[in-house]
Structure formats: structure tokens, C-alpha cells
Design goal:
- The chain is mostly beta strands.
- The chain is built from one helix and 32 strands.
- A hairpin with a 6-residue loop joins strand 9 and strand 10.
- The radius of gyration is 27 Å and the shape is globular.
């Protein structure tokens, strides 16, 4: 019921560290931190990180003359904190941050390439008309003021963020350019009890969010340049302004029924207001068809929803806790790019009722930690997105619709066991059943009959996952130490859905394992360390998502391939 907590606060002692990482695909990463108290009232903390890496996909060739592969990284980010301790009761934490993402951008391969090729060829995507440009910039500023009133603590958390994007890319001859800019502000005021041992603890507050921005996305058959912004065969989405507002009030309380039992209840009321003004132009110049968001396709929605939580906890032993919760959740509805495939391009809010029961504890003098959970999620109007083609205008766009009913239920186990004084085994297992219960696809121009998807699996929901890891430590005579880790994760098969075609189909990602290893030497006093690592030793190319268009067909997104690296760090 509460928002996430603030970033790590500066400490009142000097500390600094630098870490560097080099590895496969010319990976280079450097991050550094410094914490410096100025006086008894002010402390500062700064963090900066830089990552560069060649692309994981093979998209450059002698024929196209590209210098870089897609799916690369060229990122820089930083964060600065200033903590003002005015008195034992009053503190102010100011935080500023920025991030820059450069490079040629993400990429994908055709489904046919993924299904018929192996190894590096499975990651090859040629035929792109442009190398790609990614230029994303984000900045943020937050202020968190806390003041103890005696019986409770008052907290104000305010934030302001900006995001600007200018990207250019292509897939198999289709070029896309997107320019967008967004600004958002948020305010939260909450009051919470400070005595955790009191019979009744509670928190109450209010939240305000406001975002405004614009977007201009253009898609065509040839490279788009500033000199030729619109050419024959182009679709253009111009949205200005795009607005989103959300207001909420919330409260939650926990009452100690006895020394070993507690009950919790919470309530939140949320109002969302989303709108945008703009047009979609088809085949320009000249515009042969234009669809206005406001005139033809609805692009202004308002929703309000109350959500709640009730639960209980029971201390079975001093080190074992049993708990049960029932809660509801809400994701606001919205609208999608109008392509006139439906008369109304809005979609409903997604509602969730979750049930969870579990136990967790520490056993055998804390040498073993175990947790087990059984859960069920019941979705109403689950939001599902896909691409639809309108043959009347030969236009395409992402449509979001609602699956009336869906369920996600299963059990999870996880634990950690000290099998010796130097060895630790960690493990986890999940069994899952996730499927649509009621989901009838609506009639659209590419499909004149409704299709029933009831009983089909939800995307990326494997029936079983199992993970094991082992860590062993060796103490050295000089006061340093060596730590070795090996861990593997198994996933049963799962599906990824293509709803855009006339006969929707689910593509299967076969079961797989991914294994990671690392070995670390730490100097005496942990003053410095050096680590060698390998991830995804099996080098499996795993599907993580897919996209579709009538011109490029089904495109597959892939997870990280096998990588090796060396990481070093020093503390001051």
C-alpha cells in the first residue's frame, strides 16, 4: 500500500570504491562511489556508472557498410545524494540523477532464422536499411523530508523527472524514427507510526502524479532523414500533448492480537485520467487518410478504483513465521495508436485478486533458511497487446484488448543451507499453471470471425522452474579468501503468442538450462578483489519476446548469449 522507499542515504563516515569490468563483446564497465560527510549536519554520496558493449546480434556486413551490431550498449548514469540532518527529528534527503543511453539500439531476428539456424547464425539479422541510432536522456530530482512528531513520523516525497528520446532504426527494410519528450512530477505525503512494538501500527497518505509529453513516430520503406521527413509509403503518428494524471489516498494498519499473532488491513483509492491529442497519417505526402484520436478513435479515458488487502501473521516459533494474505490490484486502462481497426481504441482497467499463504523460517541454529508459498491470481480484463493490420487502409498499429478472465496459480519453494562451515547450497523451485479462462478475440478487419482462446497458456509462464547454486569459501593464511560459485536454472517450455495474424498462434520456447560460474579472490580486509565469471555457459539463444508486422513478419527478441568477464574492485 506504500510507495517504494527512498534511495540509499549518505553515511556519516568517509567511504569510496571503484569497480571495473571487462569481458565478451568488448564489454567495458566502470562504476565508482564516494561517500563524504561534510559536517555533523550534511553528508554527501555520489555514484557514477559507465557501460559500453558491442551488440549481441549480427547486423553489420560488408554489403550494408554498418560499423556496429544491434543490441549494443553505450550507457552513462550518475546519482548524487545530499542528506541534511537538521535535528534528531528532522532530515531532508535531496537526490539528483541522470542517465544517457546511446548506441544503435535493440534488435531482433526473424522467427524463421531462429527456427532454422543454430549458434551465431541464429543471431543474424541482415537486410536492415539503417544501422540505427539510439539517443535517450533522462534526468530526475527528488526531495524526501521526514519529521518525527512524537507519536508518528511525517514524510513528504516529491519528484520531478524528464525523458527525451530520438531514435532511428529499421527491420528488413522498414525504417522507423521516433522523437518524444515527457516530463512528470509526483508528490506523496504520508504519516506513519514510529513505535514498531506498539499494539497498533499504521500508515496513511496521499499521492499525486502528473505527466505531460509529446511523440512523433514515423515509419517508412526508405531511410528517413531531416531533409526528407515524409516520403511515399510512410505512416506517421503525431501526438501532442499526451497527458496522464493519477491521484490516490491510502492507509494500512497492523494490530497485534497477541504476542505471536498479527492482523493487517489496508485500503487504497485511485483515480486515473489519461488523454492525448493527435493524428495518424497514412501514405504521405500528401496525406491520403488521417485518423484523429479525438474525432474518430477515443483517446481520453478516466477510471477510479478501490483496492484492499487483509492478512495475518503467526509466529509458529521464534524463528518461524506463517502468513496468509488476500489483496486486490488495479492497472489503469488506456488507449492505443488509432488505426481504425476498431471504432474505439480504448481498453479497460485490469483487475487482480490475489491469494497467498506461506511459511518461512530459520532452522538448525540458523544454518538453514526455508520459505514456501502457495498463491493464486485471478485476473479480470487482463490487458493483452498485439499488432493488427487494417486492409482497408493498409495501416498497422499495436492494439490492446482485454481477456475477460485469466488465472495464475502455483507453489514456490526457496532456501539456503550451510552444508559445511565453508559451503552453502541455495535452491528454488516453482510450479505454475497460468492460462486464459475466458478470452474471445474480437472481430477485426483481418479476422471476420471471433476466436476463442480459453484454456490457452499465458505468455512466458513455464510450468516448472528449478534453480540450484553452490558457494564455497576458502580462508587464506594472509587474511584474504577465495569464493567460488556455480549455479544453474532450469525452465520448462513456455509460449509466446502472435495474436496479429488471421489465425492466432502460440510459438513455443523449448525447455532450457542456463548456468553461471564465478571465482573471486578478496584481499585481507576486503580492500580489493578480483573476480572471473561466465554466464549462460550453455550459450542457449532464448526467446524472450516477439513482435509482428505485415511487412517484416514475426520478429524474435533474444536473451543474453554466453559471456565471459573479469571484474576488479578496490575500496578506500
Amino acid at each position: 500500500m506504500r510507495s517504494t522507499s527512498s534511495p540509499t542515504s549518505p553515511a556519516k563516515k568517509f567511504a569510496a570504491e571503484v569497480n571495473a569490468d571487462v569481458g565478451s563483446y568488448n564489454r567495458g564497465n566502470v562504476d565508482a562511489m564516494i561517500n563524504a560527510p561534510v559536517n555533523d549536519t550534511v553528508a554527501l554520496r555520489a555514484v557514477i556508472s559507465s557501460t559500453t558493449r558491442d551488440g549481441y546480434l549480427n547486423t553489420k556486413s560488408a554489403a550494408n557498410g554498418f560499423s556496429k551490431n544491434r543490441d549494443d550498449a553505450n550507457n552513462l548514469s550518475g546519482r548524487m545524494h545530499a542528506l541534511f540532518s537538521f535535528s534528531p527529528a528532522t532530515q531532508l534527503l535531496l537526490t539528483g540523477d541522470f542517465s544517457q543511453n546511446r548506441g544503435v539500439g535493440n534488435g531482433s531476428v526473424t522467427l524463421a532464422t531462429y527456427q532454422t539456424k543454430t549458434g551465431a547464425e541464429q543471431r543474424t539479422q541482415l537486410g536492415n536499411r539503417t544501422e540505427g541510432i539510439r539517443d535517450e536522456n533522462a534526468t530526475g530530482f527528488t526531495a524526501e523530508l521526514t519529521h518525527k512528531l512524537g507519536f508518528a513520523e511525517l514524510t513528504y516525497l516529491g519528484g520531478y523527472r524528464t525523458f527525451d528520446r530520438d531514435s532511428l532504426g529499421s527491420t528488413l527494410g522498414i525504417t522507423g524514427k521516433t522523437v518524444s519528450s515527457f516530463k512528470q512530477s509526483s508528490h506523496e505525503l504520508r504519516l506513519a507510526t514510529v513505535d514498531a512494538a506498539a499494539p497498533l501500527t499504521w500508515v496513511a497518505g496521499a499521492y499525486l502524479f502528473d505527466e505531460r509529453g509529446n511523440m512523433d513516430a514515423t515509419f517508412g520503406f526508405i531511410p528517413i532523414t531531416p531533409q526528407i521527413p515524409t516520403l511515399f509509403g510512410i505512416q506517421r503518428f503525431q501526438q501532442d500533448p499526451v497527458t496522464s494524471k493519477s491521484n490516490a489516498v491510502f492507509g494500512q494498519a497492523t494490530y497485534k492480537v497477541s504476542s505471536v499473532a498479527r492482523i493487517t488491513a489496508g485500503l487504497r483509492y485511485t483515480r486515473d485520467d489519461k488523454a492525448r491529442d493527435g493524428v495518424q497519417s497514412l501514405v504521405v505526402p500528401p496525406p491520403l487518410a488521417q485518423f484523429s484520436n479525438t474525432a474518430i478513435n477515443k483517446a481520453a479515458v478516466k477510471y477510479a478504483q478501490s483496492t484492499w488487502k487483509v492478512g495475518g501473521e503467526y509466529d509458529v516459533t521464534p524463528t518461524t513465521l506463517a502468513y496468509a494474505n488476500v489483496a486486490t490490484g488495479y492497472k489503469a486502462g488506456g488507449y492505443f495508436d488509432g488505426n481504425n481497426a476498431r471504432g474505439d481504441n480504448s481498453y479497460k482497467p485490469e483487475l487482480l485478486t490475489s491469494y497467498e499463504i506461506g511459511v518461512k523460517g530459520r532452522f538448525f541454529d540458523n544454518r538453514m533458511r526455508l520459505a514456501a508459498t502457495a498463491f493464486r491470481y485471478d485476473y479480470k480484463d487482463l490487458q493483452v497487446s498485439y499488432v493488427a493490420i487494417n486492409p482497408l487502409t493498409n495501416s498497422s498499429g499495436t492494439i490492446t484488448t482485454n481477456a475477460a478472465r485469466a488465472t495464475n496459480q502455483g507453489i514456490e519453494f526457496e532456501g539456503k543451507v550451510a552444508v559445511s562451515d565453508n559451503g552453502t547450497l541455495n535452491f528454488a523451485m516453482g510450479l505454475l499453471e497460468a492460462k486464459y479462462k475466458t478470452f474471445v478475440f474480437p472481430v477485426i478487419p483481418t479476422r471476420l470471425t471471433a476466436i476463442d482462446f480459453a484454456g490457452k497458456k499465458l505468455d512466458k509462464a513455464p510450468d516448472a522452474t528449478i534453480a540450484f547454486g553452490y558457494t564455497h569459501e576458502w580462508a587464506l593464511g594472509n587474511g584474504g579468501g577465495i569464493t567460488a560459485y556455480v549455479g544453474s536454472r532450469y525452465s520448462s517450455s513456455y509460449v509466446l503468442s502472435n495474436f496479429a495474424i488471421a489465425a492466432p498462434i502460440q510459438h513455443t520456447q523449448k525447455s532450457f538450462t542456463r548456468t553461471d560460474v564465478n571465482v573471486t579472490y578478496a584481499a585481507p580486509g576486503d580492500k580489493w578483489y578480483v573476480q572471473g565469471y561466465a554466464r549462460n555457459i550453455e550459450n542457449k539463444n532464448i526467446m524472450t519476446g516477439l513482435t509482428f508486422s505485415s511487412l517484416t513478419g514475426t520478429q524474435v527478441l533474444l536473451a543474453e548469449p554466453r559471456v565471459f568477464g573479469l571484474r576488479v574492485g578496490v575500496k578506500f
